[in-house]
Amino acid sequence: MNVNREVEVSPSLISCDLANLGNQVVLCEKFGAGSFHLDVMDGHFVPNLTMGPDLIKAVRKVTDLRLETHLMIERPDKYYRMFHEAGSDLLLVHYESPVDLRHLFDGMSDENIDYGLVINPETPFSRVKDLINECKVLLVMSVHPGFSGQSFIDSSLPKIKQARKYIDENHIDCRIEIDGGINYENGKKAVEAGADILVSASYIFYNDIADSIKKLKSLGST
């Protein structure tokens, strides 16, 4: 299948060398990253603890690229403003969060805060299609959220195809992103299925950063 659209690469900083954070962000931007993905975990919604607003502030100081903050937390309604004020450009909220998403999204829209919707591997696209009209991004998880380094779940690909078809047919201004176990091989499958943005962590930061980003970006012209 031929693909003729630009693919954005969003390095997930969960796998970067935090002792060398600034330099690694600069390197990623130099070699073609289009945005940065920041995983926020609260130890409740997912069984892991990661970064808070202070790390967002630190990344904001060294790049002007879009910062996507992935809120893997039980109370996105309570904390989203903190991450927006820290420098996040886009807040990604899980469909599975125990909050009223329509109410939350309406509030974020009133505050001119850009947001996206995230779906876990078990959540079918059909459940969320009525929620994405005003979303900037639909993020399809291709691993179970919580830890980097997991294997790619192939059942995420049909969901991307369904989302691509629905978004295109209904002329919705929402990009499709995929996150979890992304490397060149499955990234190619995701792009062919309709993904616009590839989030990648260990594939980028545990290998040559320049080469990894270049390979992922090349998938937009295969």
Shape: globular
What is the CATH fold-level name?
TIM Barrel
Alpha-carbon Rg, integer: 16 Å
Helix content: 25-40%
Total of domains: 1
CATH architecture: Alpha-Beta Barrel
Mean pLDDT: 94
Name the CATH superfamily assignment.
Answer: Aldolase class I
Structural class: alpha/beta
What's the SSE pattern? EHEHEHEHEEHEHEHH
In CATH's first tier, which class applies? Alpha Beta
Largest sheet, in brief, is: 8 strands, parallel
Uncertain runs: none
The number of E-state strands comes to 8
By DSSP (H or I, 4+ residues per run), the number of helices equals 8
Q: How many angstroms does the end-to-end distance come to?
A: 8 Å
Strand content: 15-25%
Task: Characterise the protein shown here.
- By secondary structure, the protein is an alpha/beta fold.
- It has one domain: TIM Barrel (Alpha-Beta Barrel).
- It is 34% helix and 19% strand.
- The protein is built from 8 helices and 8 strands.
- It has helices spanning 21-30, 53-60, 76-86, 101-110, 156-169, 184-193, 202-205, 209-217, and strands at 8-11, 35-41, 66-72, 90-94, 115-119, 137-141, 175-179, 197-200.
- The protein has an 8-stranded parallel beta sheet.
- α2 runs parallel beside α3 (76-86).
Write out key terms for the chains shown:
222 residues; alpha/beta; TIM Barrel; 8-stranded parallel β-sheet; 34% helix; globular
Write the layout of secondary structure elements.
Elements: E1 8-11, H1 21-30, E2 35-41, H2 53-60, E3 66-72, H3 76-86, E4 90-94, H4 101-110, E5 115-119, E6 137-141, H5 156-169, E7 175-179, H6 184-193, E8 197-200, H7 202-205, H8 209-217
Helix pairs in contact: 2-3
